[in-house]
Each structure stands twice: as C-alpha cells, then as structure tokens.
Amino acid sequence: MAVLxxxxxxxxxxxxxxxxxxxxxxxKAGTTGLGADLTVPLITNWxxxxxxxxxxxxxxxSIDDLGGVDYEADLEFQDVPLFIDLHPFHGNFxxxxxxxxxxxxxxxxxxxxxxxxxxxxxxxxxxxxxxxHGQDFGxxxxxxxxxxxxxxxxxxxxxxGLSMDLGVIYxxxxxxxxxQLSGPAISQADLNREARQLEDDLNDLPFYPVFTIGLxxxx
Length: 219
What we know:
alpha+beta
C-alpha cells in the first residue's frame, strides 16, 4: 500500500509525466504472500516487462499426515519474479511467462506421545524437519488480468486498475533434513527413512500454485 501511495503521489505531483513514463506499480496479495511489481512497457499495449518481489511468512500452521506424521509448520517464502506479459488483444487480458528466483524455507515440527518415525514408534518424542526447494530458479506460466503500463486505461492523472495472476511455478524437488529434538533416542536409519518419505510426498507436487490479486497505478 505504501508503494501505491508513493506512485499515486508522483503521478498527481507530476501529471505531465504520467503519459510519458508509462510505468506501472502494483501492490498485491495471494499465495505468494504480500508483494509489489514494477511494470515497464516493451511494446506499448502489447508486451510488458514485469519485475516483482513477494514475501510470505506463516507461523504454526498445521499440516496433517505428511509422511504419515502430523506437523506444525513455520513457512518463510521469498521470491523475485521476472515476467514477460503478452496482451494479445491489446487490453487487460494477459498471458505471462517468466522465472522466479526462489528462497522457500519451511520448518516442520512434530511432537506426540506416540510418534512413528520411519518404521518405529517412539513415546513422547519430537522431531524437526528443515525443508528447502532443491532449485534456486523456477519457470512460471500463467494468465492474468490488468495492464499497469496501459497508456489508454483512463484519461486521468493517475490510472488505477485491478491486477490478477493465476498460474504455476515449477519448484522441482524438495530437500529434507530431519533431526530429533527430544525424547528417547531415534535411530539415524529411522530419521533417514522418514526424511525420504517426506521428500517423496513433497516431490509428488513439484508445482507451486500462484493466485494473486491487487491494484496497480500508472505514472
């Protein structure tokens, strides 16, 4: 919202430049967290370049039956997308391709009176899994609505519009490091086996869904 306010101030303060710059700023929220995009036209009302930043922090959400264990998860996702937006009808509808720089980390903690790790059940035990996507960059494909650099959007000093994205990021395989926090000694073989089971479950879904909605301004 601060980014949108600054952009609006610049546009109002310098209305003569609003049609000259043709640059848009978008504030948004969704499955990638809170974020902002900067949109620059490459071919007016046809092709845009979009650079963004997103942050998603989520503490203590429950994930049930992952690798056969119920976990409490702390998520911290950061990413930087670089998009090419194609507007085939010279309007708001867009087809988007690009790449995300990914920094997605998750910490899963399981504590139970009867905790099955690998092939063995342990009483009053606790384990923690550190999870990270196995690749730093993920290709993206999606569709959306909104053109933050559209110089025909409104005949106003500040052009305001709706922005939406719907697509998927290919995040690849996840890497899991599992260790014991408390309780009777858990064998390394069981820890390794449980970590592999976690990886298998996570790697069945190598795509991360993207749905965001927000507002853009042009100046």
